[in-house]
Amino acid sequence: MRIRRTISLAVLFLAAVIGPLAQDKAAVQMDKPGPFKAGGPIAFDVNLNEPLPKGARFDFRVSPVAGDPEIQLASTEVVDPSQKKFRVSGTLPDGAVPGEWRISVIYLFLQGSNWTHLTIAPNDLRFQVEGKPYPIPTKAEVTVAR
């Protein structure tokens, strides 16, 4: 009986701690369905679960699933006065790796901050990028130079 009560209290405690941390994700959709071309434009519609605080901004980055180079999309436009809906757009670099891409991270910058570890959790949106494939080095032999 005492063990059952202890387990019940532990479950309630974990629910109270984890519940607020497991907030809704930002709903991100493609402006136009892909595939997108290396060197071409790309745009996303972002719906935040809460209004963006006054003076805050977010930094939207995408990357190929097969690698980790992050491409920052610079243009963010407010779509409606609720401060919850935004359009994020930019241009993929000419040398963008072809294949499946994803939203890498959305950093949240509060008013007056220039660096942050705050992030906004996006939904798992994947999209295709077309481009010329090229080999990427993955190994190197290093020797001591004299």
What does this protein structure show overall?
This protein has 146 residues and is mainly beta. The chain has a single domain (24-130), classed as Immunoglobulins (Immunoglobulin-like, Sandwich), CATH 2.60.40. The chain is 14% helix and 35% strand. The chain has 1 helix and 9 strands; from the N terminus they run H-E-E-E-E-E-E-E-E-E. It has a 5-stranded mixed β-sheet, with no helix packed on it. Mean pLDDT is 82; it is low at 4-23.
How is this structure best summarized?
By secondary structure, the chain is mainly β.
Architecture per CATH nomenclature, i.e. the level-2 architecture? Sandwich
- According to CATH, what is the class? Mainly Beta
* E-strand count: 9
Distance between the termini: 73 Å
Helix content: 10-25%
Question: Which keywords apply here?
Answer:
1 helix; mainly beta; 146 residues; Immunoglobulin-like; globular; five-stranded mixed β-sheet
Question: Helix and strand layout, with pairings?
Answer:
Blueprint lengths: L1 H20 L5 E4 L5 E2 L3 E7 L9 E8 L6 E3 L1 E4 L6 E7 L7 E11 L16 E5 L16
Parallel strand pairs: 2-9
Antiparallel strand pairs: 1-3, 3-7, 4-5, 4-8, 6-7, 8-9
